[in-house]
Each structure stands twice: as structure tokens, then as C-alpha cells.
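Table 4 source record.
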Amino acid sequence: MVGIQSTKTQQLRPLEPVERDMMSVYDLVYESLVTIDDDYLPQPQLAESWEASANGRTWTFRLRTDVCFSDGTPMTAADVVATIDAILARATSENTTDKGYYQNLAYFVSSASVKDDYTVTIKTPAARPYWGLLYALTFPILPASQVSSDNPMGTGPYQVVSFTPGGYLTLEANPSWWQMMPDIREITFVLHASQSEVIESYEYARVDAVFTRAVASSQYKSGTTSLALDYRTNQLECLLMNHSASLLSSVNVRKAIRYAVNVDKIASSVYMGMVDRTNTPFINGTWMYNSSVDSAYVTDLEAARRLLEEDGWGDSNGDGILDKLSGDTLIHLKLNLFVYEEPDDDVRIAAADMIKEQLAQIGIGVTTTTMKMDTMTEKLVAGSFNLALVSFAMDPCPDYGFLLMSGNTGNYGRYRSTAMTDLCKELRTCMTQSEYQQVLYRIQEQFTEDCPFICMFYRKGTVLTRRMYTTVRDVRELELLRGIESFKP
């Protein structure tokens, strides 16, 4: 039995997930054209092969011919196209504000069509005819007749046999699965209202395993009766810096802040080590990460002070806050730092307080303000902030132009760099992993030089379990039971 948090899921709609833990359940029932392996590389799943033509504008995917849905009905190209059409219809609809969890597919796919029963043709938009498409094809494939149904059939190792919202959800092994029958034949999920209830259920042995992102779960790592499997979430914590604010328009000031903020100390003392450190938006330890830039991210207060001095900042009145003349006006290096909190989780506020203390050491005065997420969003969109401690839910595709390109949706700091924008556009023409990696490395070098904002870390969660259930190396959010279907107890 597995304990998870679930209060919002009233219907099982795999294309319309509303809770992250529930997506790990869907991952056992549904499969995608492409899967991401332990090395974070795309691999065939329901598609056994693919090839690109017309400079990446057309992709041909050949499907496995031995795959059936859980009732024994063969999966064909019509099911794949119907699923893609359903996602794109919602993503591009003018009649709904909720574009769906998989709405980003519209950036990668313009249309899909059936070539024959086991061949699908995908057309890409002119702006993105590139290798990154493969990461976008990781959504569940449903029967054409059930794309809008509750509890549609899947092709995965398990099938849903019962579901009571807020109560229990039970899976059984799918007898029609195209691979080997799982040794673990039944999995029951106990649905809890809060993270504290999830932990309590585990403490009292009501369940065998739980998923939790609570920092408090770190206390179980030293236990003798539990296994603690850390997993990386897709939540990237960042300290945004508003380039349109005059005090932060200088790269020297931004780099001084980068030198002063001791991210490792914040990670260990506030987040209890429940993070994966990264200095760029890309995932550290994977093929995409350029570790050669890491030397620029050490904590160095003297280097920070030198950069500020180069920009003309000094402490003329001895009050501990740097100042300088701008014309006839004495301006002070004082910044506001906005922070919002997630429900039942106050760690980000503590992180903001620590950043305030660290910046005070180099003469930067900081006023912290805590607000609700809606208010924070308004501030970010309006550009009415200096510093903001926020998180982004990152897309599976390692293409973060939405944060880095001039004028893009996630570029709240008003960062403008022709060189960076050109690199992001070049990335979207790369047709091989090698080409893609080379441009990603250059993007990270440009990111380090420009210092548009500070990447701190990806948050971690923990699977607490009383017995091992997987051999995969990369346990990750939304796929937390990945590998259970092939595990030999």
C-alpha cells in the first residue's frame, strides 16, 4: 500500500492531471510514444523508431505492433493521432483559459496524421523543427474512443480496478501488457488530505510507502527500518533580479549578489539538503549540464565588494549600506525582496531571510516582503520588484528559452541579450543530441557571463518505503514508481 496526497482528483483523466502524486499513478497505467531514460535521454516506448525529414518539419514514427489496451484491443496510429488532436484542441482553444497540463505540446507539434495502422506523421511548427520534439512526446496515449472519458484504458503494466475519490485507488497487473507480467500484481493507493497525514500514515505503518516533498522527511534517512529514495522534482528555485530596475541594470551588481548569496548554506540549513544544486537552469549531473561554468559560482565576499567598488559604490556615511552619487542625488543600494509561500511550507521565507543577511555583508540593504502567489504573479508581470524568490515548474524538454529569450513569458526579470536569444533560436534547429548539447553548453556560458538571475537548486522529495521496489537510477517526480513493474522482490 502506498500513501499519497490527493484531494482534488475526482475523476481519472490522465490528459488533465490536477495533482502531481496522481501522475505517478497514471505513469503505471499509461505509456507514451517516447520515454526518458536514467541518463535523461529519449528512448522508444510505444514508438519503436522515428526519423526526421524536411529539415525537421516532418517526423515519421513507427509504432510497436504488439501493443494492446487493457481490454485486448490493439493500439494503432489512430489512437496516437486522436490523443494528440485532443491535447492540441484544448491547448489552442479560444473558449477556455485552462489549456491543460500538456499544453506545451502546441509549441512542438502543429499536426499529426495517420500514414498507416502503425505509422504516424507529425508536422512541427516552423519555429521548432528540432530534436527537442522527442521530449514533448511523453504524454499518455489513450484509445481514440476514450480521449475524453473518465478512467480510459491504457497500455501500461497496470490497470485501474477501483477508485474512491479521497479514499482508495487500486491497480492490478494488466494481463494484456506487451511486456512481461509484473511480479507485483496489485498496488493500492491510500489517498490523504495533507502531507502531515501522509507522514503520519507511514509512521503508524498503515502504508508501506509514501511520497513526500516535506523537508521534515529528511529525519527518516538515518532510520534502520525505512529506505529513503530521494527524487528530483521539476521545481527550480530561483532568485530573480529585475534588470529594468536601475540598481540592478549593472552586471557588476548582479554578479556581486551572485558572489554573496551562499546557496550551499541555504540548501543545508533551510532545506535540510533536500535539493539538487544547479548553477544554471539545466539539471546538474546530466549530459546537458556544462560543469565548466561552476567555478564562477563560488561564494566570495571580497570579489563581490570589488565589483561594487568598480561600479562606484561606497559607504559615505558609515551606516553599512552602500551609496553613490547619481548627478546631485545620493542613492543607496537598497533592494526589496519579494517571496511567496506554498501552503504548509515556510522554507522559502527562511531562505529569503538568509539572503537578506548575506547581502548585508556586502553593504546591500534588503527589505523582505511575503505575499500570496497571486500577488507575486502580479508583481512579476508588472515588473514592480527588485528581487524575487520564486520557483518554476520546468518542462521535460531541456529548452528554457521561455526564461532567457527577450520578451518571453517567463522572463520576468526583463533580461535582454541578443546573443542569448540567438543561441536559443539556434538550439531550436539542432537535429542531433551532439549538436543540441554543444548549443546548451554555449547557452550556459552566456548565462554565466550575463548573470540574468540566480539558479539555486531543484527541490527534492523523498519516497519513504519499507522495501525496495525499483532498480532505476533516476527516481524522479511524476514517475515515482517507475521500475516497479520489472522489479523482482
